[in-house]
Amino acid sequence: MWLGVLGSLSVRDNGAEVHISAPKQRVVLAAMLRRANQVVPFDDLAAALWDNAPPSTPRVTVRNHVKSLRLVVGPAVSARIITRNPGYLIDLREAELDLLHFTSLCASGAEAAQAGRWEEADGALGRALALWRGAPLEDIPSAVLRREEVPRLEHLWLDARERRIDAALHLGRDHELVPELRDLVAQYPVRERFHGQLMLALYRSGHQAEAFAAYRDARRMLAGDLGAGPGPELRQLHERMLSADPGLAGRNPKWSCAAARPRQVQAGTPDFVGRAPELAVLCGMLDAAAAGPTVVISAVGGTAGVGKTTLALHFAHQVADRFPDGQLYVNLRGFDPSRPPVTPEEAIRGFLDALQVPPASIPAGPAAQAALYRSLTAGRRILVLLDNARDGEQVRPLLPGSPGGLVLVTSRSELPGLVADGARPLGLGLFSDTEALDLLARRIGPARVAAEPDAARDLIRLCARLPLALAITAARANARPGFPLAALAGELRAADGRLDALETGEQIADVRAVFSWSYHGLPPAPARMFRLLGLHPGPDITAAAAASLAAITPGEARGLLRDLSRGHLLSEPVPGRYALHDLLRVYAAERAREEDGEQSGREATHRLLDHYLHTAHQGAHLMQPQRGTLPLTPARPGVRPEPLAGNEPALEWFRAEHRVLLGAVTLAAERGFGACAWQLPWCMATFLDWQGHWHDWAATQRIALAAVTPGVTRAGDAAAGADDRAAQAIVRRAFAAACIRLADYDSARTHLTACLRIYSDLGDQGGQSRIHRDLGSLSEYQERYDDALGHAEQALRLSRVAGDRDGEAFALSNVSSYHMLLGQHEQALVVGRDALDLTRKLGARYGEAHTWLTIGLSQNALGRFTEAAMSQQHARDLFAELGDRTFEATTLGHLADAREAAGRARAALAARRQALAILRGLRHPDAVDLRAKLAARVAATADTPAPADTPAPADTPATADTPATADTPAPADSPPAAGTTAETARDPAI
Question: Are the beta carbons of 883 and 651 closer than 8 angstroms?
């Protein structure tokens, strides 16, 4: 027999359900079952039967109800109901009553957890919770029983749920717990343990920003419901997260830097000489780094050009095998006069990229990013090289959080604060005469030095034994192999500017003379190119951009750059990309000001910015044609925007120029080119969004907003007036989109509200429609689907009034999506057909893809799996063609679901394999979950014969990872299928 109270009352005898229709009989049985194997007094039974208002002869009536109950439940159960003074007892074994079995399993689970046997604990508690079929005693008409028993049983259930989640967290199932915990937190807002478990699951899943947001939500809920803040355990967990406590690391995190072994340190110089004492000191620190209780930091100090970076790079390569977890490098630009120093936040974001943290998993706030960086480097053997630091404040946030690694810091400053905190200073002076002579011999050949020893020593003296100056001098000597060294020394001796006071306050003779000597030896064309390069924001430049900068052809620019590189006035760290040493950048900018004048420099800067703006504008249109264009002013004469042949070349160009474009936006704002300062961020938005660079997106939009805000001076720039409200609306809309990506929903709503006001004042109904679409997306992210639908319907009305067919298509697609999210699937299909027709007519392929996606979801929910699979295939093909890899993977996942539901398990596995390959390539956190699910399905279908799938049409694209198993195309009148989407179509107007 089997009896149950954890849900509706249940009695089974030999597998057959026994129906008890009389309400009083159900109450009597429930009252005995809740205290099985204990005597239940007559008075308690009477209280339960009549809710504490019994008749005049309750005992007689109770006996009659028990007698009737015995007849209904049958002889097996009846035999267990025993009359025993002062009432009745039901005698049951653990395996015969769900409540007894539940209690026993909970005790076993708690005991296993106490002993650290987490698999056993998870299994026992999972089986216990599976016994619950609904609300306990839900069909028992007794207020007394429900009041006395239901809270106790719910408490037992909640306790078991908490313990089971604890076990799952110990087993590393962090990510899969997040949806369950979100539901529990919403249902039980004052239960702090669920809040803590959600925070921990998010933190270990790589979603640190959401973990901190969960703490803020907990604090708000507890204050609202209890009038008090979080308890000590929750506060302590929050503090441990802030400090990136390594003890919080999970058993199976979503991603880990263990698989990422960055090798960011650049190649060292092949002609490295000297520095034996300094290298010995650095090598002596390695044992301390391995065994010491703190992070070992070496601060290498010295004047500009003395070889600090060269020494650090050489040492890093020498000891690379001692740091198996990798090397991190950043040029902090502490003393670069043409560009601001790199902020700790920027450096940390670069490190997180190098550690292969998926962009979607990078927290929004600087403090959380720093905590994540410390957590990822904790206990790892990593060498961190912080080059060209300005001061200790710039360095401290970049230090790893635990011992095991070595930090090398180079700086022109002595970094006294950092030294006071325990860093070991290592001063780097000028070369000795022997080292300098060795360098010349390595660079120009020992025979040439031996032939003119006095001239060689003269060159060394004139170069002040400064390694950078010596390298330039050697390059000049190599360029004139038949020229006597004495003649070279004579030229150098005659050069202007004999003293150069560097920014450290030290005076080194003839440094400017070395530069000027090499510079004045250049023909006019390379000399002009050298001066112009001092105006570039860096970090490097291509021949195409240099051609626009100088108003010459790319071929001419390439030749000039190579000439400068051969003379060591320019380096080529990556083939085809050229960079200036910061001292040479200073000198080049100085020469440009003195020889060319302010106006000439401004015109060259304008050409450079036009080059990047017009190329980026072309690339943005190739990536998202439906996004439209901006009314750019024509490029300046001499500008040659780079020709981009299609979507993929455009994407590659943006990738290569990513950091340069960020610098160009800053340069445009600083030099008063206001139009470029907001238009270039607009052009970069699609790339930054699709590649997950949302922090950069927000930063550039912040600059753009300042450029179009009244009161901001834009000297010499008539293209973007301070009162250009349409530009303000465009910028704020893009800024809002970036804020949504970063989960800064309050800021997004502020920007969108301002946009709506501007478009309303301008009478621009098309603009108002676009903002309502965005407000719908914002509401969707906040899971306010009714609000989202209202905004989408308003957007649809406004776009039709404005005659904006593209806007109408996107609004229709969004209306369909929100009906789907609200479970109104038939309505979603009706609207989706209209959206599909319109997007096809307009050639809006991105909108068409999302429409197929949404309709497919509704088809799937309605059980129309074959149609859903066809629709998902259409959506997947379009996303693949457009290059949106994230949505291609999402759609493949839903295509797999539809195929599986249609009984096509092998075809579903093929789609999941394709999705996994894409997610791995994107370093997306969902790859871990998908890999686990895929493994389980592979095992489940190992012995299942593959169905005969319909072959793919000839024009159906497939990814390079795994050939697609295509479905038969949907009939023309069949609504498409959608994969799941966590959002509506990304609006191409953003």
Answer: yes
Euclidean distance between CA atoms 649 and 205, whole angstroms:
34
Residue with tokens 């093929």: 910
The packing angle between helices 765-781 and 805-821, to 10°, is 20
**No. of helices (H) and no. of strands (E), the chain:** 41, 15
H-run or E-run covering 386? strand 383-387
Hey, what amino acid is at 381?
R
Q: How far, in Å, CA of 726 to CA of 735, rounded?
A: 14
Return d(Cα 42, Cα 65) in angstroms, integer.
12
Burial class of residue 244, CB neighbours in 10 A (0-12, 13-18, 19+): buried
Provide the residue ranges of all domains of the chain, joining segments of one domain with +: 1-171, 176-201+211-254, 276-427, 433-520, 524-751, 777-782+800-940
What is the Cα–Cα distance from 556 to 698, expressed in whole angstroms? 37
Chain-centre distance for alpha carbon 674 = 30
Quickly list H helices, 495-553: 511-520, 524-533, 543-550
985 φ/ψ angles, rounded to the nearest 5 degrees: -55, 135
Amino acid at 415: L
Q: For residue 526, give the amino acid letter.
A: P
CB 610 within 8 Å of CB 666? no
Encoded tokens for 624: 């998202």
Which of 347, 92, 376 shows the shortest CA–CA distance to 254?
Answer: 376
- H/E stretch holding 42: helix 42-50
d(CA 721, CA 712): 9
Same fold, 1-171 and 176-201+211-254: no
Selection from 727, 616, 728, 606 nearest residue 668 by Cα: 606
pTM comes to: 0.57
Share of the chain above pLDDT 70, in %: 84
Q: CA 113: distance to chain centroid?
A: 34
Q: What is the CATH number of domain 1-171?
A: 1.10.10.10
Q: Are 177 and 165 in contact (CB under 8 A)?
A: yes
| Nearest residue to 795 via CA among 774, 824, 764, 781 | 774
Determine the Cα–Cα distance for residues 453 and 1; give it in Å rounded to an integer.
Answer: 107
Cα 682 to chain centroid, rounded: 21
**DSSP one-letter code for 971:** P
> Which residues of 886-977 form beta strands (DSSP E)?
none
Residue type, 745: Y
Bridging pattern class, strands 10-13 and 16-17:
antiparallel
* Tens-place pLDDT, residues 668-716: 999 999 999 999 999 999 999 877 788 899 999 999 999 998 754 443 3
Reduce the DSSP state of residue 82 to 3 states and report it: strand
Can you state the angle between helices 453-462 and 433-444, rounded to 10 degrees? Answer: 110
Identify which of 986, 878, 887, 891 has the alpha carbon closest to the alpha carbon of residue 627: 986
What kind of fold does domain 176-201+211-254 have according to CATH?
A: 1.25.40
Respond yes or no on whether the N-terminal peptide bond of residue 988 is cis (omega within 30° of 0): no
Kindly list the distances between the CA atom of residue 233 and the CA atoms of 78, 109, 193, 870, in Å, as whole numbers in the listed order. 50, 23, 9, 51
Q: Which residues of the chain have pLDDT under 50?
A: 252-259, 496-510, 712-723, 942-989
Report the DSSP beta bridge partners of residue 97: 3
Give the chain's largest Cα–Cα span: 130
Q: 400: which residues sit within 8 A by CB, 6+ positions away?
A: 295, 373, 374, 377, 378, 380, 382, 384, 407
Token pair in block for residue 161: 């749920």
Nearest to 929 by CA among 368, 207, 211: 207
Per CATH, the number for 777-782+800-940 is 1.25.40.10
Q: Is 731 exposed, middle or buried (0-12, 13-18, 19+ CB in 10 A)?
A: buried
For the stretch 333-385, pLDDT in tens is 887 766 788 999 999 988 888 887 766 567 667 777 787 788 777 767 888 99
Domain 276-427 sits in which CATH superfamily?
A: P-loop containing nucleotide triphosphate hydrolases (3.40.50.300)
